[in-house]
């Protein structure tokens, strides 16, 4: 899955409620812990 969709997934899970930056970061961290094979290197940009 493309990395832009993980952020949208996290925001969608909030069900219309606002997330603070810390909450969003924690959600993405927990997604990465739950699905490590799907998010492997997802937030590392190899082009930098």
Molecular structure report:
This protein has one domain. With 48 residues, it is mainly alpha-helical. Helix 1 packs across helix 2. It is built from 3 helices and no strands. The mean pLDDT is 80.
Give the key terms.
mainly alpha; 48 residues; 3 helices
Indicate the proportion of strand residues: under 5%
Give the strand tally.
0
Helix content: 55-70%
Shape: globular
The assigned structural class equals: mainly alpha
Multimeric state: single chain
| Poorly predicted ranges | none
First-to-last CA distance: 20 Å
With helices defined by DSSP (H or I, 4 residues minimum), what is the helix count? Answer: 3
Please state the CA-atom Rg, rounded to the nearest Å. 11 Å
For the record, the count of structural domains works out to 1
Secondary-structure element order, N to C:
HHH
Provide the residue-averaged pLDDT: 80
Instruction: Give the biggest sheet.
Output: none
Please render the helix and strand layout as text.
Blueprint lengths: L2 H11 L7 H14 L1 H4 L9
Helix pairs in contact: 1-2
Short description:
This protein has helices at residues 3-13, 21-34, 36-39. With 48 residues, it is mainly α.
